[in-house]
Known about the structure:
Its main location: membrane. The chain has a single domain (about 50-135, about 170-345, about 385-490), classed as Outer membrane efflux proteins (OEP). Helices cover about 55% and strands about 10% of the residues. It is built from twelve helices and five strands. The radius of gyration is 38 Å and the shape is elongated.
Amino acid sequence: MFLQRNPPFPHRGPLSPGRNTPASAVRDAGAVVGPWSIRVLVTLAGLTLGGCAVGPDYRTPPLALPARYEHAARAQPNSAAAIDGWWKRFGDPVLDQLIADAVRGNLDVEQAKARVREARATRRQTAAALAPSVDGAASATHSRTSASGTGLNTSSNLYQAGLDTSWELDLFGANRRSLEAADRGREAADEDLRSTLLTLVGDVARNYVEARGYLARASLARRTAASQRATAELTRAKVQAGASSPVDLAKAVALAASTEANVPTLETSFTESAHRLGVLLGRAPGAVAGQLRRGSAIPAPRRSLPAGLPADVLSNRPDVRKAERQLAQATARIGQAEAALYPSVSFTGNLATSGVRVGDLGNASSLIWSLGPSVSVPVFDAGRRRAAVEVQQALRDQSYSAFHSAVLTALEDVENALVGLAQERVRMQSLGTATRNYREAARLARVRYSGGTSSFLDVLDAERSLYEAEDNLLQSRVVAASRFVALGKALGGGWSGPVDPDRPAIVDQDAGPRLATQP
């Protein structure tokens, strides 16, 4: 196992260690540091530099993964380079440009970039705890004293300056575990950015495919309605000639109107997809609708995607890598909480000088300094620190389950996308065959009807069936393209171009000291 589910605590004495009761005080001001202090300092520094740690050390958890995907044609390893930029296999320059614009302007990506900057700053902030801190102070005081009954006034000046320093020796690795957790958090933020980009690319591609599909279906409905109106005009002429009944004319007009009624619904759906694309690009909802209307047909992939092996999701899926880094972060926090059960040692120093004139501050006779260690030993806290460790252990277990769930979800996504794409392609072939035959049947029915050798019912049924078959074929093409998009996302293929998370969205100006203004 990668870590102990319930790591045992080391044996301790009858007192439960805490951090509330100091065990030693700082040497008096002006005292000389003796040899014992030097030995203590050297010993503590050696322990600190040597590194002592508590809590479990993280190891990547082993997972039992299948040897191959159930619905994959081949079982060969897959690299990230082989699946990055999968949308380019559509060969659609409009889609390529939309995705590039979305990466630059999407607001979810901007938030993910800010989280990366936050994680990096948190890491630097945490690392500072391993170094000593030094604070300086200076003051100047002018005082005047009046002697009662004498009428004499005495004035005096006092100048003071000093330095205070403190350094908590990380004997049991609390600060190092905190830094380890910050490192893992920074890595998780990097993966979160990659995951956001992957989701963005998939959403742009899916909405683009759907928008193209709605336009194609609306165009089909208009063409079909026009053809059906032509049939209705032919029927009207036959009615006037006494060769057909008014019932046939009513049915022909109704069929054309019913087909044309689909156009507003399809136009609404197209507009909604176009609006979603505009927002994904960080623009106004209607920013790309006109561009999409000038585009081409429903995109279809020109090359297939290699499925790879199930183990590839561990390295290719950013959401899985993010969950694994969060598990490592939660493991480090156990050691951070565990270190609070042990004594803490800090080293403090003070240097102060004072004088009635500024020049006196540099005189050796006015210097006062102190130097020495301080030890805090936990004695009693009613189990608060132990409970804090158990809290972090429970959070680690939650992260482990989340990581395992992310892996299983990734495998499920790939399997569903593989079978969905394969079956939709089979369905699309059958619909293509049906469409070709319905088109021929409709042509023959109109010819026979014009020649008077067939009833209008045959024409009506043939035209209705043809429109339904052609519309189903267009929908199947949209579904197949969407399945291909889902497969690209499931395999972890994403944006491989440059992304700069260090560029802030807002650059503050005139943020230094200045005169305050009224709000």
